[in-house]
Amino acid sequence: MTEPPAEILRRLRPIPAYTDHPTTSPRDVVGVGLDGLARVIDVEHAAEPVLLLFLSAGCLGCRDLWEGLTGLHAGLAGAARLVAVTKDPGEEDPGVVAALAGAGVAPLGIEVVMSASAFRDYRVGGPPFLAVVTADAVLIESVAWGLEQTLRTALGALRRG
């Protein structure tokens, strides 16, 4: 007898992008906002942890994360700042990214930054990917596997961090 696919998927867990502990160093995210203005997300001197969520408008695996940004923010309950990161304009359409993020993110303090350099700095092979970062260390870097698992992974890293 075979298991239903939904049961198999429920048991899957993200694979970390490292063994033992992350070797990536905290780096500020430098790019542009959806308004086209230069944007810097202070990570290296941040007083609070930051959850960097690397997404793409064309990524099917990112859809539930785009739709769940406000829920993810609520689930973090102030434990970390939430920043969605895409690649630069030209690689991503700012209008499509803005539509996916939704109008409700800005009032909550969820930032969306377009930064291909952040993908390089955090060695993101492709979205969806997450990194939980403090001024002192990258606590975890991993595949962002759905909304619930992404929140569980981030909160677990923050508790251990």
* Total count of helical runs of at least 4 residues: 7
User: In which range does the helix fraction lie?
Assistant: 25-40%
Which fold name fills CATH's third level, the topology?
Glutaredoxin
* Arithmetic mean of pLDDT: 89
- Number of structural domains: 1
Give an overview in words.
The chain is an alpha/beta fold. The chain has a single domain, classed as Glutaredoxin, CATH 3.40.30.10. Helix content is 32%, strand content 22%. The protein is built from 7 helices and 7 strands; from the N terminus they run H-E-E-E-H-H-E-H-H-E-H-E-E-H. It has a 7-stranded mixed beta sheet. Strand 6 and strand 7 form a beta hairpin. Helix 3 runs parallel beside helix 7. The chain is globular and about 50 Å long. 39% of the residues are buried. The model has no long low-confidence stretch (mean pLDDT 89).
Question: What's the SSE blueprint?
Answer:
Elements (H helix, E strand, L loop, with lengths): L4 H7 L17 E5 L4 E4 L8 E5 L8 H5 L1 H8 L4 E6 L7 H8 L3 H4 L2 E4 L1 H6 L7 E5 L4 E6 L3 H14 L1
Parallel strand pairs: 3-4, 4-5
Antiparallel strand pairs: 1-2, 1-5, 3-6, 6-7
